[in-house]
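Sample entry (176 residues):
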Amino acid sequence: TGLLPVCFGEATKFSSILLGANKTYEATLKLGFLSTTGDAEGEISQVAATVPNPAFSECEQAINSFIGDIQQVPPMYSALKHQGKPLYAYARNGEVITRPARKVTIYGIQIQSLLGNELRLSIQCGTGTYIRTLAEDIGKALGCGGAYLISLRRTSIDCFQASRAHTLSALEEMNA
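Predicted structure, serialized as tokens:
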């Protein structure tokens, strides 16, 4: 959920700038479990022998290792193309394509809350970052075997903030 910029008329000329802009997300991770899609839509499996309950300080330490330029392997459930076909099409057929790691930048991660094995984060990142993959990698770094996203909300794109956005219904009511 969250912010989705919509460009009209002459503003469409600038839409490509938004694609490469930095973004901020609020993400809630379920530690100790994996999902085939990286989120609640996929098949969920428990990977930790017991449901993890990490300490706040452990989470801080693990998260700090992801700040800066990191290498990230894009998920199979993504729109990236392989031989002209999106990866998610292969994934839906049960095929796994080897994907090279890419450099992405994480500018900051703050812990919003930690309740049992649910870790809520605010993440500031550069373009091309897959938060689903970051969640799984954070879960592994915590020794939980992985994690998946139970919620994800984009709260900003560059200078545009979700708190200042309009809903679609509010846009429909506006005078052209």
